[in-house]
What we know:
By secondary structure, the chain is an all-alpha fold. The chain has helices spanning about 20-25, 35-50, 65-75, 85-90, 100-105, 135-145, and strands spanning about 85, 120. Helix 4 packs across helix 5 (about 100-105).
Amino acid sequence: MTxxxxxxxxxxxxxxxxxxxxxxxKLWPKAQLTEDAEAKRPYQHQIFSQEKSKKPLHLHLRxxxxxxxxxxxxLQVPMGALxxxxxxxxxxxxxxxxxxxxxxxxxxxxxxxxxxxxxIRQMGQFGNYHWGVTRKKAMIGWEAAHV
Length: 147
């Protein structure tokens, strides 16, 4: 988090938290990283609680105009729904840019909140996911069960 909002959210894989912290440091090279469990707790509860909060979460995104447009389009995909890269390209206003959309999706710095896991290939394949296809399938299944 920064004073402006959530700037990074990722999953910790079987390698511990060090790779996730290193990724954060790489994305924000001039930031002074400090851990504050108390400051994070309300956000963790709001993000991962099954209770729907009406309080908006503020995001602090850094990316190209195109990336931000793609991430904004992802926020319009409802929970439990899936879209293809081509459809997401249309939602982002660039219908012929599905490959570039894939790259922007892959650079999403805020996993789960910006739901890049809801993007699949045109033929219905799950495709790649930064944190593994098993996690992607689990999130898609969890969402489908809750809508």
